[in-house]
Design goal:
By secondary structure, the chain is mostly helical. The chain has two domains: 42 residues; 195 residues, no CATH class. It contains eight helices and no strands.
Length: 238
């Protein structure tokens, strides 16, 4: 037993030392990454790199806002149609409109507008559904054009920084009267850094943009399918 305890203690100390070493190495890697990123950002030039950073921040803000809005706008259309049909059978149009008022999302809003025009006839109700559907599509696509602008703007700003960096490199060559690597390295490095950061920002925002467009397409398809079902329901219950 006396020999066992020292062995266990030594094993525990070795494991603790290994864990501390791994943690220290991980912390050093993280610290080095942040320091390297900060250093590269400063070397790229505060003006163009700052503008590229602003495009990233604004683009992410719009993307997050759109994702939250679209997730809240997603509705189970089959369940809504069944609830409206059941309420209409058990009561009247007002009961069906009450179901739409208590349901969030563009599909419920479209249903309410159609049911609200039922007293004017099926044709008037169908026109109201189509017109209000266009309004809801506009709300779904709100600010998406700005996101596409930032996707195009970020790499263009990077390329502009590239051109300015190359101009600075040639100015250094002209001033020194020599084409040594040390003379042109600074300008070329600035050119490459601005290009890389611009492309990284564009790639990040493009991923969010494609996700948002796919969500909008899915909601629009649900709106169109639900509108057809609503018109059929109104024809059956006119």
């Amino acid at each position: 037993m006396k020999k066992l305890f020292p062995t266990l203690s030594m094993t525990g100390l070795m494991l603790l030392s290994s864990a501390q070493s791994i943690y220290a190495q991980t912390e050093e890697v993280d610290k080095t990454f942040h320091q390297e990123l900060k250093l590269r950002f400063i070397e790229g030039g505060p003006f163009f790199m700052g503008i590229v950073l602003v495009t990233l921040i604004l683009g992410l803000a719009i993307a997050i806002e759109r994702i939250i809005y679209l997730n809240m706008a997603t509705t189970n259309t089959d369940k809504l149609v069944n609830n409206v049909e059941e309420a209409w059978k058990n009561g009247d149009v007002e009961a069906a409109k009450e179901v739409c008022r208590n349901t969030k999302g563009p599909v419920a809003s479209i249903f309410y507008q159609g049911l609200d025009r039922m007293d004017e006839g099926v044709d008037a109700a169908e026109k109201a559904v189509v017109s209000y559907g266009g309004v809801q599509m506009g709300l779904l696509e709100k600010n998406v054009s700005w996101l596409s602008l930032f996707i195009s703007l970020a790499p263009m700003l990077g390329f502009m920084g590239t051109v300015i960096g190359m101009i600075g490199a040639f100015d250094s060559i002209e001033a020194a009267g020599d084409i040594s690597p040390a003379v042109v390295a600074g300008g070329i490095k600035v050119a490459l850094l601005t290009t890389v950061f611009g492309l990284v920002v564009a790639i990040i925002l493009q991923i969010f943009y494609n996700y948002i467009i796919s969500k909008i397409d899915g909601i629009v398809n649900s709106m169109e399918d639900a509108s057809i079902k609503l018109v059929d329901l109104m024809i059956r219950n006119k």
